[in-house]
Design goal:
The complex is a heterodimer of chains A (312) and B (267). Chain A has two domains: 5-216, Rossmann fold (3-Layer(aba) Sandwich), CATH 3.40.50.300; 218-310, Alpha-Beta Plaits (2-Layer Sandwich), CATH 3.30.70.980. Chain A contains twelve helices and 14 strands. Chain A is elongated, with a radius of gyration of 22 Å. Chain A has helices at 43-51, 71-74, 92-100, 109-115, 131-143, 161-175, 188-194, 212-217, 234-238, 259-268, 283-291, 296-301, and strands at 5-14, 17-27, 32-36, 58-63, 77-80, 149-153, 180-185, 197-202, 205-210, 222-228, 244-248, 251-256, 273-280, 307-310. In chain A, β1 (5-14) and β2 form a beta hairpin. Chain B is an all-alpha fold and 267 residues long. Chain B has helices at residues 2-5, 17-34, 40-57, 68-98, 101-106, 112-142, 148-161, 163-175, 180-195, 207-213, 217-226, 236-266, and strands spanning 61-63, 66-67. Chain B has a two-stranded antiparallel ribbon. In chain B, α2 (17-34) packs across α6, α7 packs antiparallel against α11 and α8 (163-175) packs parallel to α12 (236-266). Chain B is globular, with a radius of gyration of 21 Å. Classes of the chains: A alpha/beta (312), B mainly alpha (267). The interface between A and B is medium-sized, with 33 and 32 residues.
């Protein structure tokens, strides 16, 4: 079957920056796909190419077998962008009505408003909505054309836990109707929960494309963390079997497939440690193992004074 | 395919254009209706200036049946329309670019010319409203009397002659940032309209300003409009030629700005 959306050897260059370095992917009808990667990895660029919001420097993007700029192709998809505004003073319902007019066969406005959970806000001007409600409005605008294919670019950024929860349920409901959904996220649990296929992008390349379970299983590792009492023997720590090691002051955090080995070595060398914790790696660590870098959420938290390295 | 086999008409692949245009124009008008702050100045100021100059000093006769009040009404009409095109359209477009509304629309199947068309239609609607208010005041308080044909001709001059300034508005709207647009619009438009005799009779301006005035689009626009009352400094064809020339230049700049903006965002 012909893919719904497809990138073929897609390269994208912004001046000196190579945002995409040869991406091949095909998404088929009914798939729910999460594109995962840190900021600047190329997720949004990929989506922009698929949508025709950007043109590939070389390679190809196809949407329903057509050029993504083709209105016939665009009429079959809905889009929720990261940064976009709406005219001030227009009400939720009015905006939904406006966007419905862009599509050949839209769903009833009331249905789009209801699916987005905005019934009570239908008469509220867009600029009076809370952050979470605004996201829901963009969602309503994305689905009001009754799209076969829905793009969600980081749909839950800036939402609190509860709104994110509610939003994910909304999207799941829509996916259950057999729609194709492509979303980007850097929340790993979001990808895990929503998608049946995760495409991991890093530095402009697809580095993994598999179901969430498979991606997790690639790092059956453990996270070991402890504090060093006394001087930190960095050289000794680096000799421990690990995939990833971080030192921050006296705090050590490592990912390893052989936690017992590593700890045995720690004790054999007579290192004095406190607050030892050994836990199973989650998707965030899976990400790390795949990309060799920390997931962006963690990166934000500790940008300074850390030693980072990947081995084995 | 399946639909055809079943004997039904296949679904249209794109939305009907008429529906898109209607919805977009409606949304533009709704925007103005909900945000009167965006246009109240362009509505009130021309009437205010007319009341100030036209009613206070307007009873002086320029020709048979024509008083200064007529001319000031025409000049304030030109001011109303051109300021709407430069300020409302220019600053409005810069705002929409800054808030990412253009990106959102660009991702929909809406052809970009429909959004532009609605924007211009909104500006035209504001212009007509503004002119209506001005004309009503001029008739009621300024003693202006014209027949239907004359009103129509005046309106036509006011609207068609303003088109080069639509180019200026769009050039600012596509070229300037949200912060720069209002400043730029004021910086270009205000001196230009003053220097071209839109507010003050050109004969009272200093010589060097007058020599510049003859090159400005607002000067020829004002002359075109004053031509309605046979008090223009130049023939109709001269005004028209200048305005067409300026129109080409300003729209060329607007198109260039639009292209640059598109490349920056969507290439």
């Amino acid at each position: 079957m012909e893919p719904v959306v497809e990138l073929v050897r897609a390269h994208k260059r912004y001046g000196p920056v190579e945002a995409l370095r040869g991406v091949d992917l095909a998404i088929h009808r009914g798939e729910v796909v999460a594109m995962l990667g840190p900021n600047g990895a190329g997720k949004t660029t990929s989506i922009n190419l698929m949508l025709g919001l950007r043109r590939p420097t070389s390679g190809q993007a196809r949407l329903f077998g057509r050029d993504p700029g083709d209105r016939r192709a665009r009429s079959r998809c809905g889009v929720m962008l990261q940064e976009s505004g709406v005219p001030m003073g227009l009400r939720v319902r009015e905006l939904v009505e406006l966007f419905r007019a862009y599509y050949p066969d839209p769903m009833p406005a009331a249905r789009a408003v209801a699916l987005a959970g905005l019934e009570e806000q239908a008469r509220v001007p867009a600029n009076k909505l809370s952050g979470g409600q605004l996201r829901r409005l963009y969602y309503a605008l994305a689905i009001c054309g009754d799209p076969e294919l829905l793009f969600l670019d980081e749909p839950t950024v800036g939402l609190d836990v509860e709104s994110r929860r509610a939003f994910l349920d909304t999207v799941k409901e829509f996916a259950a109707e057999g729609r194709t959904i492509v979303l980007t996220t850097h929340y790993l649990e979001e990808a895990d929960e929503l998608a049946e296929r995760i495409i991991v992008i890093d530095r402009g390349k697809v580095i993994a494309d598999a179901p969430p379970g498979e991606i997790k299983s690639r790092v059956a590792g453990k996270r070991v963390s402890f504090d060093c009492a006394g001087p930190v023997d960095e050289a000794a720590l680096r000799e421990l079997p690990h995939r990833h090691l971080e030192l921050r002051g006296g705090h050590v955090r490592m990912l390893t497939n052989q936690p017992e080995e590593a700890l045995r070595e720690v004790f054999r060398r007579g290192l004095v440690i406190r607050n030892l914790e050994v836990t199973g790696a989650d998707l965030e660590e899976a990400f790390l193992a795949l990309t060799g870098r920390r997931a962006p959420a963690a990166e934000e938290a500790g940008r300074e004074g850390e030693v980072e390295e990947v081995a084995g | 395919m399946n639909a055809a086999v079943a004997g039904r008409r296949p679904k249209p692949e794109v939305a009907p254009l008429g529906r898109m245009v209607a919805a977009q124009v409606r949304a533009t008008l709704l925007f103005y209706w909900r945000n009167p702050a965006f246009f109240v100045f362009s509505l009130v100021l021309p009437v205010f200036f007319y009341a100030f100059f036209g009613l206070a000093f307007g009873q002086q006769r320029v020709a048979r049946n024509i008083t200064v009040s007529y001319l000031i009404m025409a000049q304030m009409g030109a001011y109303a329309v051109s300021s709407i095109l430069v300020f409302n359209i220019g600053i409005g477009q810069a705002n929409r670019r800054a808030t990412g509304q253009d990106r959102l629309l660009r991702a929909t199947p809406l052809p970009s010319w429909v959004a532009l068309f609605a924007d211009v239609a909104g500006g035209l609607a504001l212009s007509l409203l503004s002119l209506l208010v001005l004309f009503v005041v001029a008739v009621a308080a300024g003693g202006v009397r014209l027949d239907l044909l004359e009103w129509g001709s005046l309106l036509l001059r006011l609207v068609l002659g303003s088109l080069p300034l639509l180019g200026l508005g769009l050039a600012i709207g596509y070229g300037a940032s949200q912060n720069a647009a209002p400043a730029l619009a004021n910086l270009i438009y205000l001196p230009m309209s003053f220097a071209s005799g839109m507010f003050i009779p050109i004969q009272t301006l200093p010589q060097f300003v007058r020599s510049i005035a003859h090159y400005l689009p607002t000067y020829h626009y004002t002359q075109l409009v004053l031509g309605q009352f046979n008090v223009s400094d130049e023939a109709l064809w001269q005004s028209a030629l200048w305005l067409v020339g300026w129109g080409i230049v300003l729209f060329a700049i607007a198109i260039r700005m639009y292209r640059l903006d598109q490349v920056r965002k969507f290439a």
